[in-house]
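Following the same procedure, backbone shapes were mapped to integers, yielding the entry below.
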Amino acid sequence: MKIIKDSVHDHITIDGVARDLLDTPTVQRLRSIAQLGTVSLVYPSANHTRFEHSLGVYHLACEALEHLGVEGTQADRVQAAALLHDVGHGPFSHNLEDVTYRRTGRYHDDVDDLLASGQVATVLEEHGLEPERVAGLVAGEGRFGQLVSGELDVDRMDYLVRDAHHTGVPYGTIDHGRLVRELTFVDGELVLREGNVQTAESLLVARALMNPTVYNHSAARIAKAMLRCATEHLLEGESDGAEDRSGDGTETDIDAKTLQRMDDHDLIVALRQTDATREFSRRLDHRDLYKRAVWAEIDDVPGGIIEADHGSIREFELEIADDAGVPEDSVILDVPGHPSMTESTSRVVVNGDIRRLGHQSPLVDALRAAQYSQWRLGVYSPETVREQVGHAAVRTLGLDIDGPLISETRDGLYATLDQFVE
């Protein structure tokens, strides 16, 4: 048994299979992966790691299993999955996941290969656990997979309160104790017991407030886009034959699979040592970020752009750079996906029936409207060329912008909840 002092949950007792997994290299690597990626450039205290978060998820999973009355091998499987649920993350967490997915076809929760061999596999097998079944739980498969990866999972409960604590932003503070206590299974579905509509709403509101304030803060988005662009150059260099780009006679040979197993420090060193990425690295190191040349609302963006794939986005960037007469790397186009709110599919018991929160709570429509109004397409460039890049982007993308190119607020969407009640 080991007792660990945690900044969020106070003392975490870790025992059994989780205790033996704790000191494996696979889990220890998470100490060097930032939970919030580039958000620390906005909130300096947001330097917590995936390791801390994984301990928190394990702790909440243990509490949930106790309240659900789950013991024995099944409990061991879930506890192992909770501690291992993030071992598939690459450097800077979600910031580069799309970059590596395009080349490997794997997201961070696809951990079959990681658990199938090495020390993790040995520990699991010594405790009578099948690595493939634990990997399935990480991916959200089966009845208990919902507890690790689902609308009411303990992963979300921990990261909201942990991210709020470390950023100093109070919006993510939720009653995770009540959430864990009120979980139950009905016909195989993980739901919240009767009388917990407001409990489910708290998750929804917390995420809706943390998104624009923390996760999608404009400066964090710019830094993420620059990091993503630099990493693309790093990987494109590998596909061109790993020529000498370090400037010191050494070769840089990094492919996407290698990148996924690196930590933040490994990637930073690689970016600093590679000619094609050195300037991006310098800017990120010094927080000399690109500026917003365009910050456009969703209604100002023509159809097809939001759905554009990576290749099309890159073509747009090249066209904008050509129109503006600037180097190719002076333009980054950042197009978020359509606004979505997965938490609205959480199930709650109301009058004996299982209902989706989106069908029960008037808050959902109000928050969807707010999320829609907060959506922004970004075009980023060095400050010295932002004006010509902004106007070139409007022409190239066909944006319907008559006023300022930077739209900070959206008028006309102030509303009261009674407007959304049927």
The chain has 20 helices and nine strands. Residues 218-239 form the longest helix (22 residues). The beta strands are 2-6, 10-14, 183-186, 189-192, 291-297, 332-334, 347-350, 353-356, 376-381.
